[in-house]
Amino acid sequence: MYFLYNTCNIVFIRLLARKSTQVGLFEAIYTTYIARFINTRNVNLQYSKMADDTFKTQYSQKSPMSGYTFLDNGFYDVAGTMHEALTEQGVKYALVGGAGVQAHLATRLTQNGEKSLKDCKHVLGVLLRPTCDFDIATLDGNVEKMFRVGQTIQSALGLGFDPKIQRTLKFEPRYAGQEPIFVQYQLSAEDFQGLPGMYDTVVESAEEVTLRLSGRNGITLRVAKPEYIVASKLTRGSHKDNMDIAHLLTVLKQTHGNFGFEDVRAILKGHNKEQLFSNLENICVDLGIARPELN
């Protein structure tokens, strides 16, 4: 799934595209990587310089991506159990961050759980950026309730549980060599970096999505709307945040989804960060996405 790190893997995406029934989506993915992450403004690379040294120049300081996606049984199980435990404790929440992007991509490509994630594993294996974290914003939560959520996950899945890290539930994997999974929770606007003024709205307006992994029951998650996730990631502006935005917009376009560009502008303006909207416009230009395609 780590297709960004050498030219041979980019070529492999093209080969997959030719064999896939979702050729248009693979072509869009390929275009995404070429336009945004090879020909980036940071290193000013051109299409004519797509040799191995291009990747060495851009990614030599980056370690390989690690973590999990919803294609991984353990990560999927923690997500579903987390939702059930939060609901049982009366805690309303919204999944944000990288796992939130994963959830939006996966639910749109599987028609909200009508297809199994495994049915789309080749596409999702390219699109889903691995992470070890479930970042959630919560309402009506507190440290005691979140501790009980952690205990429920521990009991249901048989994972080692470390509650000692502030605002974090840490779960040790079943098998040696695997990375821990973290539930990082926010209890109030003060914890919500980037867009504190929208905290309650982000949680209240979260969308319920359904995912299904072969051999397991379907799970439900509450995920922050794409506009809030994109606005939040624009305030960070890192390579992985730009990657998430590009993937999300690409899939929204391919699945005929809606996206409120002006909503994102309004969210940023409300936090005196409207200047960051130009970064979203640049990403759209690089992807060849016109606003009417997502309105």
How would you describe what is shown here?
The protein has 295 residues and is of the alpha+beta class. The protein has a domain at 73-224: 2-Layer Sandwich (Beta Polymerase, domain 2). It contains 12 helices and 7 strands. The protein has helices at residues 7-19, 23-38, 52-59, 73-88, 97-109, 121-127, 143-157, 199-204, 226-236, 239-254, 261-269, 277-287, and strands spanning 92-96, 133-139, 160-162, 168-172, 181-186, 207-211, 219-223. The strands form 2 sheets. It has a 5-stranded mixed sheet with strand order 1-2-5-4-3. Strand 4 and strand 5 form a beta hairpin. Helix 1 (7-19) runs antiparallel to helix 2, helix 5 packs across helix 9 (226-236) and helix 5 packs parallel to helix 10. The longest helix has 16 residues, at 23-38. The radius of gyration is 19 Å and the shape is globular. The two termini are 31 Å apart. Mean pLDDT is 81; it is low at 1-23 and 30-64.
